[in-house]
From TrEMBL:
One of its GO terms (molecular function) is ATP binding. It is an enzyme of class 2 (transferase). Keywords: ATP-binding, Kinase, Mitochondrion, Nucleotide-binding, Transferase. The lineage of its organism: Eukaryota, Viridiplantae, Streptophyta, Embryophyta, Tracheophyta. Belongs to the PDK/BCKDK protein kinase family. This is Protein-serine/threonine kinase. InterPro entries: AK/P_DHK_N_sf (IPR036784), BCDHK/PDK_N (IPR018955), BCKD/PDK (IPR039028), HATPase_C_sf (IPR036890), HATPase_dom (IPR003594), His_kinase_dom (IPR005467), Sig_transdc_His_kin-like_C (IPR004358).
Length: 245
């Protein structure tokens, strides 16, 4: 993914004086197809390999777990995101989780972890950067897990200042980020660089593709000057085919 981000970054630099990258929808459509295919290929290969492992975890059919606890997966993703935030900023806001810990459904835990990690990471960065230079304690981020008939929905709310209305459409485009880009002109430095908090501009579009792969979706609603709510919808009916381009 960093290699692809480097390529798009170089293309963006070449087009900077002629046309904005966001004005070329065919590039984003290509990247959507490319990454959706990549998710599908990795899922198929991973499923095949996992099915032929001699030792399988209880409740698993390959990569698919029939008893995924979204609360437990969210807690693990939160720990990983807060650990990254601590390394980058030296501190991290609290994250409060609300939901039934006994709720389970069939899903791929690695996909769910990836999506929740990205969303929580974005909220942590927004809150930390907004309140780091003030004497106020940063308000906690709230993660709510709701059990519906069709979907399991995870809502992540923060008070990180929100996104301007003019920028909402841009958050789904590749290489748009409110953070400083970590991409350098040297590919080797990029590939060897430590993990960064944000800046590639891939977190939200890739997370939405993961959600849509199994018939779910990701929505973001923001209130500039206050904060952002992200709604992650996960299909639980098992009646949707994988979304191949």
């Amino acid at each position: 993914m960093p290699t692809m981000a480097l390529g798009i970054h170089q293309l963006k630099q070449d087009l900077k004086k002629k046309v904005g990258l966001n004005e070329l929808p065919e590039i984003h459509q290509f990247l959507d197809r490319f990454y959706m295919s990549r998710i599908g290929i990795r899922m198929l290969i991973g499923q095949h390999v996992a099915l032929h492992q001699p030792d399988t975890l209880p409740g698993y059919i390959g990569l698919i777990c029939t008893r995924v606890s979204p609360v437990d997966v969210a807690q693990n993703a939160i720990e990983d995101a807060r650990s990254l935030c601590m390394r980058i900023y030296g501190s991290s806001p609290e994250v409060h989780v609300y939901g039934d810990p006994n709720l389970t459904f069939t899903y791929v835990p690695t996909h769910l972890h990836q999506m929740v990690f990205e969303l929580v990471k974005n909220s942590l960065r927004a809150v930390e950067e907004r309140f780091s230079k003030t004497e106020q304690d940063p308000p906690p981020i709230r993660l709510v897990v709701a059990d519906g008939i069709e979907d399991v929905t995870i809502k992540i709310s923060d008070e990180g200042g929100g996104i301007p209305r003019s920028g909402i459409s841009k958050i789904w485009t590749y290489l748009y980020s409110t953070a400083k880009s970590p991409i350098s002109d040297c590919q080797q430095q990029l590939l060897e660089a430590p993990q960064v908090m944000a800046g590639y501009g891939y977190g939200l579009p890739i997370s939405r593709l993961y959600a849509r792969y199994f018939g779910g979706d990701l929505q973001v609603i923001s209130m500039e000057g206050y904060g952002t709510d992200a709604y992650l919808h996960l299909n639980r009916l098992g009646n949707v085919q994988e979304a191949l381009p």
